[in-house]
Each structure stands twice: as C-alpha cells, then as structure tokens.
Specification:
The chain has about 475 residues and is mainly β. It has 2 domains: about 5-155 and about 460-465, Immunoglobulin-like (Sandwich); about 155-435, Beta-galactosidase, Chain A, domain 5 (Distorted Sandwich). Helix content is about 5%, strand content about 45%. The strands form 6 sheets. Strands 13-20-21-22-23-30-27-26-25 form a 9-stranded antiparallel beta sheet. The chain is globular and about 65 Å long. The chain starts with a strand and ends with a strand. The model is unreliable at about 1-60 (pLDDT under 50).
C-alpha cells in the first residue's frame, strides 16, 4: 500500500429476494485507492473485480458504438445506458466473468455495471458523455477478461443507515423495511432520529434529496454548494444543524402537509367525486427499501409499498417507485408502477407551494413541465422547482386546497394509472447558492427549456459489429 493511500471496496449492489422478505445482496465491486488526507472523497483509481460465477461462452471481440447528438446545442454529462441484450446482439453471448471496456480513441471511459434484478449478473452498463452541437462520436467496445483501470470521481451516491444504541449510525444498508404506522422522531425526546437524516438519501455532484422513512413519506431537498458526496456525513452530529447553511449546503425545503419535492399520491373516485389520497399514514402499510446501484456514475434505489390501503372497501394496491440520479444534473428521475389500482385511478406527484405565488408551465412536442420560482428556500433565497413528464402520459395539472384535505399546499401533476407503462417524471431543484443561473426566474426558465429540448431529442445510439 502506498504511503498516504488506503484501499477500499466500493460496491455496486444488486439484490436477491430472501425467504424473510427484503433482499440479500449479490454484488461486484470496484477496488478503490484514494488519498485520505482530508477525509473527503476525491479521485479514485478504480478497477472492476467480478464476484460472480463463471459462465463459459465465447463473445465477439469488439464493436463500434456510434453516439450522435441530433441537436445544435452542447450536451454535458449525458447518461448513456446500454442493456446486456443490446450488447449481446452485437457482441455475442457475454460470459458473466467478462467485462465490456469502452474507449474513446485510446482513452478508456468510466463504465458502471448494474444488476437491476438480482440474478447475479449485470443487466445494464452506464456512462456519461459530453457532446458538441450535432456531434457524432465513435467509441470502441471490447469484451475483456479485465475492466479498464481509470481515474474516477464519484458523482452519484445513495445511502440509508439505522441508528445504533450508542447514537452512532451503522453501515450503509442494502435493504431495510419499516412496518405500517412507523412514526417520525420526536426531537423533544431524542437528539437523533432512528435513521440518518430520517431516511434514505440520494445525491449527485449538484443536488441531493431524501425521503422520510415513516408515515410522513415526504421528499425533501438538499441544496449543495460542493460537488463532494456528503450524505454519509450530514446529520451524524446533532450539534450541526443541517437546516442552517454550512460549507456543503443545507436542507432547503419546508414540506409540511404538501407533496414536497415529488412525493406521491393517488386520485380515486369515491361516491362520484375524486379523492386525493397521500402515499403515507398508517394505511400506507409496510415500506421496503432496496439499493440497486451506488455510483460512480448513477445511483438507484427502489421503494416498494406492497399493501397500500387507499380507501375502505378497496383491495390493497402495490406501488413501486424506482428513483435514479446521475452526475451533472439538477434532478432525480422517478419511475412508478402500480398493481391492482382501482378503476379510473390516477397517480399524482407534486411541488410544495407554501412560499410560491404561482405555478407556470412549459411545453414542447415530447415533454411538459410545471415549475415555480420564488424566495421559497429555507434560507429565504431563490429556489426553482419543476416536474417534467413525457407528453404521452396525457397528464393533468391542478392545485390542492390548503386545509381540510389529506394533501395540502401543492401544485400537482396527475396521469391515469397504466398497466402497460410506468409513470415517469423528473423533479428539478435549482437553488441560487448551487448555481448562479438560478438567481433569476429567467435563468431557471431558460435551463428548463434547454432540459425539455434535450429530453425531446435524445442522443442517437447505434451499435455496429
């Protein structure tokens, strides 16, 4: 070991159901060597090592990956995802013990391998790419016994930790669950909650989010002023108030009884009228958490609600939300699937409007957004928030009442529950302390318009033999 450096293992997690409920991990990992002099994550030397059974099979040696930006605009940190099936269609069967090395010229790219279904082999690879206007680039893909050794900066992270008896927090959990009726912490009685920052958190190098792992089930925003991953440190010491601005940033949102930063609800017909029911309270039932992937490119978590009782006399609903975040962006993406939904039910997400004066909309041929911009952060400075949905969802927008209802103080988007396609949305958070562009509504609106254009015209991906 080189003096001043320490070896660690950085896991890409996958999960396999176990008989007791939840998931047991199947995983492979990066071996990291990093300078620990300032106790912060910096640059890592990464090589991927397989912990998977060997399957003897022969694959083609290489293929060209052609990526084209169809827009006359720059694209930065564009997420490129390729499935195992796509790759094997061109490269032939890829043994479980093999890797795909991707090079741009002679330079290897940082590639993340993710097992999404817990079967012990990776299902997708992910990488980030930058593009000039109308640029096409050709990358070389090679099946290899060993992954490329490259310098890596961790740009996305997810974590969930339980409190120990001594008020420290345990290891990052791959899976966890709470029973129906799990209450939030009473800070008049305890200094620290049962979970670090009250529940799972996910972040990238621009912004962070969390969800309250209890009956509130609300989503909140971490405004960041650093590109470093901070969610393992924030909230550990009760003397450091994360509701006040620190060098790394702060908790910037008051959620209250709203849908906060993209929390979920359902609209169901009851006695001829629509009723909005929050995904929360004791009727929410058990909640199961699973970490699916954990950087360095993207992080993915899955929250499953197997027995949500949306109303008396209606069979329980099963809802699954898969949340992903990747480097360089001011949003997370959510994919929501629902089973056994009532007839004519609609899935709902929303933005808190406790301190915003109005909601506005933006549209193009493939994407629509609602957004707010005001002095609405907990730091009493400018914060823009937005929800973007694909036009194909045939969504509707609305505003809740501010009293006498389950969900209050919320601008929302709703769409009919579909058996054939998930409800997908992106939630954006633009805090002026994170990015000068977000000091004005014009800057935030221009950013959203650009994001809508990028969404409507994705990078074209062609794999050649």
């Amino acid at each position: 070991m080189v003096a001043g450096w320490q070896d660690r293992r950085f896991y890409n997690h996958s999960h396999k159901p176990d008989p007791d409920g939840g998931y047991k991990p199947r995983q492979w990992f990066f071996t990291l060597r990093f300078n620990m002099s300032d106790n912060k994550m910096k640059e890592f030397i990464c090589s991927v090592i397989a912990c998977l059974p060997v399957v003897f099979s022969i694959a083609q040696t290489s293929s060209n990956l052609i990526l084209t930006n169809p827009l006359n605009a720059n694209r930065k940190d564009e997420l490129i995802v390729l499935s195992r099936k796509q790759l094997e269609n061109k490269l032939g069967k890829i043994p479980v013990s093999k890797y795909v090395v991707i090079k741009e010229g002679s330079i290897p790219c940082v590639v993340q391998f993710d097992d999404l279904n817990g079967d012990g082999k990776w299902d997708e690879i992910a990488l980030l790419q930058n593009f000039k206007p109308l640029e096409s680039k050709v990358l070389l893909l090679t099946v290899s016994d060993n992954p490329a050794t490259v310098k890596v900066v961790v740009r996305a992270h997810a974590r969930h930790k339980r409190k120990n008896a001594d008020d420290s927090f345990g290891n990052d959990l791959l899976t966890d669950s709470i029973p129906a009726g799990q209450l939030g912490a009473d800070f008049n009685v305890v200094k620290l909650p049962p979970f670090l920052t009250e529940g799972p958190a996910w972040e990238n190098d621009k912004v962070g989010f969390r969800i309250y792992f209890d009956v509130r089930n609300g989503k909140d925003i971490w405004g960041k002023t650093t590109s470093q991953m901070m969610m393992d440190e924030v909230g550990v010491n009760p003397a450091n108030n994360y509701h006040e601005q620190a060098a790394w940033g702060m908790d910037i949102l008051k959620v209250g009884k709203s849908l906060g930063a993209g929390s979920l609800a359902m609209i169901i017909p009851v006695n001829g009228k629509d009723k909005m029911v929050r995904l929360g309270g004791s009727n929410m039932g058990q909640v199961v958490y699973n970490k699916i992937a954990d950087g360095p490119i993207r992080a993915i978590i899955r929250l499953t609600y197997p027995e949500w009782k949306v109303n008396d006399g209606i069979s329980p609903v099963t809802l699954t939300e898969e949340i992903s975040i990747w480097g360089g962006q001011y949003f997370y993406q959510s994919k929501v699937t629902v089973k056994n939904a009532p007839v004519n039910a609609k899935i709902v997400t929303g933005i808190v409007n406790l301190h915003s004066k109005e909601v506005k909309e933006l549209h193009n041929k493939n994407a629509s957004l609602i957004y707010t911009f005001d002095q609405q952060s907990e730091n009493k400075d400018n914060l823009g928030m937005s929800i973007m949905v694909p036009v194909r969802l045939k969504y509707k927008t609305g505003q809740t009442a501010n009293e006498g209802t389950d969900v209050q103080n919320t601008y929302y988007v709703s769409a009919a529950v579909s058996k054939n396609q998930p409800f997908i949305f992106r939630f954006f958070a633009g805090w002026e302390k994170s990015e000068p562009l977000f000091k004005t509504e014009v800057g935030f609106r221009n950013y959203l318009n650009e994001q809508a254009k990028l969404y409507a015209s994705p990078v074209l991906i062609v794999l050649n033999k």
